[in-house]
Design goal:
Distance between the termini: 47 Å
CATH superfamily of the largest domain: P-loop containing nucleotide triphosphate hydrolases
Keywords: ATP-binding, Nucleotide-binding, Transport
Shape: elongated
Strand order of the largest sheet: 5-6-7-3-8-9
Helix content: 25-40%
Number of strands: 13
Mean pLDDT: 83
Family: Belongs to the ABC transporter superfamily.
Bound molecules: adenosine-5'-triphosphate
Organism: Sandaracinus amylolyticus
CATH class of the largest domain: Alpha Beta
Number of helices: 13
InterPro entries: AAA+_ATPase (IPR003593), ABC_transporter-like_ATP-bd (IPR003439), P-loop_NTPase (IPR027417)
Radius of gyration: 24 Å
Structural class: alpha/beta
GO molecular function: ATP binding; ATP hydrolysis activity
CATH architecture of the largest domain: 3-Layer(aba) Sandwich
Largest sheet: 6 strands, mixed
Length: 354
Amino acid sequence: MTAAAASSQASIQAIGVSKWYGKVTALQDVSLQLKPGVWGLLGPNGSGKTTFMRLCAGLSKPSLGQIRVCGDAPFANPEVLRRIGLCPEADALYDELTALEFVTAMAELSGYSRKDARDRAVKALTDFGLDKAMERKMGGYSRGMRQRAKLAQSVVHDPDVLLLDEPLTGTDPTSRHVILDQVRIRANAGAVVLFSTHVLVEVEALTEQVLLIARGQLVAQGKVHEIRDLLEEHPHHVRVDCDRPRDLAAAVLASPEGEGVLGISFPSSTEVELETRKPDETYSVIAKMIVEGGFTVRSLTSPDASLEALFHYLVERSGRMAGTGSDAASGSAKPYQAALSPGARDTKKKGARA
Ligand SMILES: Nc1ncnc2c1ncn2[C@@H]1O[C@H](COP(=O)(O)OP(=O)(O)OP(=O)(O)O)[C@@H](O)[C@H]1O
């Protein structure tokens, strides 16, 4: 590593990165470039978030392609590793140690003297709201406290690149507030913060910049509002559990506002499920028909209100567009990041209707 690279700006770059574990493809041809700021890495379980974080943290090497952190490969590269902080998803703490002992030891591993390491540990633990509990053994900590101890160790050496794998897992609203504040402070100070989660609202509270990953592929990259547009664009399902589901379906279809409905099915004898491209209109027409027809409704739900549905939709659609069928993990589906890059919104819309 050169002196120039050692002082280069904080960044993460992936160039055609794939990672296999035996026959399992955990990541497939991921390319991206991240500058300072907070980046939300969104993906359902098993989509490759942790694998990507581990590659960035230098804990493993890509099977193909290159990862560069601050301009250089992180694997077995102490100069780069010194600039990286990782809060792993796994809850692997030493229960017999106090948080202060643990975070001090982590700072010493980063090369600080015992005294400096301890001072830094006290500051990091205080920043994460553990000032009163730092001398207690972590075995007695709640989940949220354990999470904050892990976060404190990830920032104790003031890293330029902060990798946070599902950092809000098991935290209560107060802990979340503290954690999100610290993430903002680090990003404002010039760090690249990669924040993984499967919950869109967690990211929305922090940043506009989102990377969507599914089945190991980067399926979309853009601003939160662009992702929201995609959510609106993809077919939405509304399920109603009521006394006369077939009559309700007929009433909705007969109404002029029911024209956005693309399909109807009856998952059980008391349920009707409508597929629509215009969820707002469909919700209002259902409500109107329920009142006018005097239906008795037990529940009205959307089975795909979560991001999970969007991931499946994007992966399937990108697979169809690339002519590879729905199993994008085994095909060469084109990710959406190009379509979602600034100035390319029209391309995306055209592609969406193709
Ligand atoms: N060490 C490993 N050996 C074999 N397969 C692995 C290994 N690590 C991950 N995988 C597989 O790679 C894929 C991606 O896993 P990864 O843990 O990166 O996903 P994730 O998005 O972090 O999931 P989660 O949200 O559940 O943590 C999964 O199919 C997983 O089973």
